[in-house]
Structure formats: structure tokens, C-alpha cells
Amino acid sequence: MTDIATLPYRRANQLWAVLVLILLEAALVISWSAGFVGIRFAIDHAPIFLILLWRSLVSGLVLLPFALTMGPPIRLRDALSQMLFGALAMSGYLAGFTLAISFGVPTGLVALITDMLPLAVAFLSWPILGHALTARQWIGSFIGMAGVLIASGSSLDVADVPMWAYCLPVLGTLALALATLLQKRSPANTMPVYQSLCIQCLSAAAIFAIFAWHEGGVSPVFDVGFIGGILWLVFVATFGAWSLYYLALRKSSPARVTAILYLSPPVTMIWAWVMFGESLSWAMAVGLAVSLVGIIIVAKAQKTAQL
Q1: What residue ranges do the domains of the chain occupy?
Q2: Model's pTM, two decimal places?
Q3: Helix 254-261, helix 2-42: angle, nearest 10
Q4: In degrees to the nearest 10, what's the CA dihedral of 63, 28, 43, 97?
Q5: Is the CA virtual torsion 209, 214, 215, 217 positive or negative?
Q6: Contact 242/67 with Cβ under 8 angstroms?
Q7: Terminus-to-terminus CA distance in the chain, angstroms?
Q8: Quick check: 129 and 185 in contact, CB under 8 A?
Q9: Residues 299 and 139 sit within 8 Å (Cβ to Cβ)
Q10: Which of 88, 112, 124, 169 lies closest to 302, judged by CA?
Q11: How far is CA 284 from CA 106, 118, 162, in A?
Q12: Rounded to whole angstroms, how far apart are CA atoms 201 and 60?
């Protein structure tokens, strides 16, 4: 009798949990897309590397007190490893897609290319981890790349963009994939996220400072657009996105969270169309759908291989 009486309450709690998870995942997709949109907004107010410098520096400084006072003591060897990961993951990845956007590559297309991370990880797993690609991974990789070519074809007609600029987000994604695989092999991988993220942000800021100095200086621009863009990139695109990402992992499975992130390119495309008037086309929509199929095939093949 007690179980029957409490059944409606259990169902209500289950429905509430599902609703909370859906809202959490929707916020994750939006915040994940915010990085591309924030960069697109900020480049109208300051040079590229100055934006990247202050995004990384502010993020690292905010995390620094927590990194020093919470968690285990930071060993020099682990710190050096995280600095290497920061040079690859932060500097390479952020510079790659940011420069592409600054040269006129459509923001949504950049988001689509950088979302091909599972394909890049699959390609680099063989030389780094000794994991050869399976037949399904090869098929998924080719399908994913075909989708990018389809989506890129329409943008080549509507944008005056140098061809080599389309390689920048590809190089950035490869840098992030390389850092991901190296970090997986490193003993420093056990460091708490707020400590590793702090070190990576500060090391990336040091690298960006060199390029920002070459661009004209490292002093911030006292402009509402610049300050607003940096705050957006720090607290929404960096802290918000990653916090929601880890929270979603606690409430759901990694497979579901990864699949949800595949929705970020279409959200970015729509966002860029509304805010900046960037064009949308059927070719981009078809290319996006084809790429998502390829990415899902690769991701599922990787999970099967790990079992």
C-alpha cells in the first residue's frame, strides 16, 4: 500500500529529474556555442591576440586562489606537463578557430569543423597510443569530412575568404586532439580540473602576450564592447560551459553528453545568423547533418573498441 501511495510522487520526481537534465543540456549547448559567438563579437573591438590574452589571463587569475589553496600541492613536474597541454589545447585550439573567424570563415562553419574532435582523436590515436582505426572509424571519418566539404562549398561562394583560412580551425582541432591524447597518457591527468585549467590558462596567456605585443601591445582596451566580450568569454564560454559540462556528466552518461554537444554547430549557425547576419544555406544544413552522422559513427566505434 505504501509503494502504491508513493508511486505518483516517484513519477513526479522522475519527470522533474528529466526536465532538469533537459534544461541543463540546453544550457550546455548554448554556453558551448557562446565561445564562437563571443569571439565573433569581440573581434570588432580589439585585435585577435589581445582578446585571447585577456580571456586566458582573467580565467587563470580567477582560478589561481582556488588552485593554490584547494586540492593537493602542485608539483613542478605536473605543472610543466599542464603548461605543455595549455600551449597545445588552449593556445593552438583557441588561436586556430579565432583567426579563422577573423579572416571571415563563417562562425557556424568554424564550430562545425572544431566539433570534428572525435575524428581528429581517432586519426592521432594510432601514432600516439598505438590504436589503429577500425573500418567503422574510417567510414565515419570519411563521412564526417565529406559533410564539412559540403558545408564549406556554400561559404566559398558567399564569402571572400582565403582558402588557407579554412585550414586554421582544422589545425586548432588537431592541436586540441593531440593535447587530449598526451594528457591521457600523462600522470598529471589526476590533477583537479580547477588546478589544471588554471595552469593551462596562464601558460596560454603568456604565449598570447607575445603575439599581442607584436600586434601592438598588451594593454586592455577600455571599451564597453571589449570588456563585455572578455567577461562573456570568461564566465559564460569558459567557466559556464565547462561547469555545465562536468555537471551534466554527473547527472548523465558521457555518451549522452558528447552527443548533446554535437548540437552546438547548428545553434552557433543560427546565433551567428541572428546577431551578425551570417548567411545560412541548405548546403550548410546538409553538410552539418552528414558530418554529425560521421562523428556519431566514429564515437560509437571508439566506445565499442574500449569495451
Answers
A1: 2-306
A2: 0.74
A3: 40
A4: 90
A5: positive
A6: no
A7: 42
A8: yes
A9: no
A10: 124
A11: 10, 20, 19
A12: 5
CA 62 to each of CA 25, 47, 160, 188: distance values in angstroms, whole numbers, following the listed order: 25, 23, 39, 22
Look up residue 153 and give its DSSP letter: H
The one-letter amino acid code at 261 reads: L
Asked if 34 and 267 touch (Cβ cutoff 8 Å), the reply is no
Q: CB neighbours of 167 closer than 8 A, spacing ≥ 6?
A: none
Grid coordinates in use for 243? 561547469
Which residue shows C-alpha cell 564569402? 159
Give the Cα separation of 177 and 174 in Å (integer).
Answer: 5
Phi and psi (nearest 5°) for 116?
-85, 20
d(CA 150, CA 301): 24
Give per-residue pLDDT as tens, 99-158.
888 888 887 778 777 777 666 766 776 666 666 667 776 777 677 777 766 766 555 554
